[in-house]
Amino acid sequence: MKNRNRFLAAGVLVSLAGCGGGGSDDSVVSPPTNPGTPPPSSSYEHIVSATYFSSCGAITPQTDAMIIRHGSDGSAVAVYEADANGDIAIDYEDIATYTMLNVGYRNGEPYPRVHTYVNITADKIADRSIISKDIGDADACECNTVTLDISNVPVASPSANVIVSTTTARTVYEDGDLDDFVEVEVCRQGSDEWPAIALTLSNADEDVPEDYYTALVANYTFDETLVVDNAVLSRKVPITVSNNYEETNYSVRLSLRGRVDNVIYFGDNISEYDISALPSSIPMFENPTEMTTGIDVYNTEYGDFYDFDDSISIVSYTGAEVRLPSDNTATVDLPMMSYNLFAEQAMTFFTTESYDFSAVNADSVTLGYSARDADDKLVLFFSLTTSGQGSLDILDTLEADDVDFALDWDFDTEEPESGYMFIEARDVIGTDNYIESLGSDDVTSYGIVYFDF
Length: 453
Known about the structure:
This protein is mainly beta. It is 5% helix and 47% strand.
């Protein structure tokens, strides 16, 4: 792929070259150590929260994060920097293009993360809190194992599938065919409190579970088994899924996630080879009451092609998703994006610098790029979000010569050793407005394709 599309980050990389280390020779930024304090009151309306999330659940502010507001000519007309609490206040109400800069970590190594949003309002920036993971030293985590007796939960007989999370996690773990006991690892950092444990239980003998029980376990010890006696049967609502009558080569996957903020409490994953085999109803996770239930159904397709003797692996996802409040009672209707239409639109990206996803009614498109060097070190992540029709020409206009970002980088735009690109198109069913669609929890059909090189 010896064309500019492979290096879609180059324009921003060059324009932001002046950001690197203007006041320092240091190229490595250490994670912050202070836990921060509650956000200060601000005369500005829009506050973006920038935080690090460690492997053992500790949250610390990103004091090096910043947001650039670009003028109509692409120049940097304002720079908003994070304070000691990781809060970035934006004092602008009109439509503008914004670039978010922060330091990410992979395997303890820092790298620049660049996110550009074209022609949006500041409230949509505030919806996109900056969260980076994996800065925690595993040795800094104190971990222990809790043994739980689940035999009193009705679906535990003869055996249960259990989804496990903790209230300091951003993911879930699944154990299948458990009899009476489940062991859960919990971790904390320093003198933090031990997190609560969230359990989702269903019958292991059922391919599509009939009943879901959930439980939150907070008062536990490590030297004795705790009986789970507070599991609650989840209320269910009907669901219908449509996929444009298209046949797929691989399974259809249904993902359920109960969340409070960005923390996953409950969930399940169901895979079938046809949407007709998916469940006709799904659980609404309700405790705590501020919880939302996220539903995501999608196809996965795999492929590859050759471009200038390079082997390019392709993975595509087309589906639909929604996030609902805990008190929802309405039927959930999820119209999946057409794989055929999305794939046709995505592949034209490699023959032109412009793109048009109107055939799939896309409100927004995000183009992303991640690059690694010969040592498999992640050296850059970049994404560009625009309306459903756009052009890479925007990258030629963005400038930030006088912005003093915390991290230097040395990135060879001609020969990255490896990496991937992705294209994501999203259609929020209830609107045709690009700005209104951003960050929406409403029913959304989507397509994502990853190109690994």
